[in-house]
Amino acid sequence: xxxxxxxxxxxxxxxxxxxxxxxxxxxxxxxxxxxxxxxxxxxxxxxxxxxxxxxxxxxxxxxxxxxxxxxxxxxxxxxxxxxxxxxxxxxxxxxxxxxxxxxxxxxxxxxxxxxxxxxxxxxxxxxxxxxxxxxxxxxxxxxxxxxxxxxxxxxxxxxxxxxxxxxxxxxxxxxxxxxxxxxxxxxxxxxxxxxxxxxxxxxxxxxxxxxxxxxxxxxxxxxxxxxxxxxxxxxxxxxxxxxxxxxxxxxxxxxxxxxxxxxxxxxxxxxxxxxxxxxxxxxxxxxxxxxxxxxxxxxxxxxxxxxxxxxxxxxxxxxxxxxxxxxxxxxxxxxxxxxxxxxxx
Length: 345
Description:
Blueprint: H1 9-24, E1 31-34, H2 59-71, E2 76-79, H3 90-99, E3 103-108, H4 115-124, E4 128-133, H5 146-159, E5 163-170, H6 179-189, E6 193-199, H7 212-223, H8 229-239, E7 254-257, E8 262-264, E9 273-276, H9 282-289, H10 302-308, E10 337-344
Parallel strand pairs: 1-2, 1-7, 2-3, 3-4, 4-5, 5-6
Antiparallel strand pairs: 6-10, 7-8, 8-9
Helix pairs in contact: 2-3, 3-4
């Protein structure tokens, strides 16, 4: 099945324009990851990015945060959680992102992708959706299973006007690594993009794959596209827990905004720098752009790495600087899965 959503000319034109903008100037964020709700309907055993009690961030507060990001010239906003579809005004949030000229993406567990909700997402202007599927049948570790979610995937293949990517996972507590192949094949059959994620530890660092996990990785790796040679090398190093030499631009080109409205390097380094978005300035962006991140060599956050590709050839960084006005407010841990292999897009 041909994924017509992946070749949407208008979206591709916008992507190209944003890449050119990113190459022309380093003064703005390329991607901001924003959390409107921490609550989730699931309790995946490997995940520490959710709770069962948090209230949604009020819509007016979300709009203020999005306006602030727009004022920086941010190109893309990705909404996540928890489960962002639990936010009662999720469609208004997405619509506001688009009204400010930014691209809108969503990361979801897929449980709320009914036909009605998909059509609401279409009308709101969503451009990207990613769903992670951990196994074929649910187990004690995860209920994000192909058996449960498949009917929602069918709905997406029929009604979604946005690009859909399915991320399968291996490593950690995943009982059957071979399930990732089944999930990837089903995603491609339905016309979606397909990526593979590796579960990492609570600090965002990888353990090397072995045995069946390595075989699954290699099979999906061979199915991937070959044209992004540097990124392929990056992914291989991640899979085998080898260090990468790159310039992480978190805090500058990539921002992670938690439900409390604080700016962090990423989901794995919550607390650094831990500055309220309303107090974040162009000077903070410039400082973080030029600051080396001590966790970068074994980082698994694919979206941060991909954003960094635009600038990896320029602006050598200085050692981590804890100047008083930029001191972190604390530290934390984030989600435990990120994609490393693009099987088909």
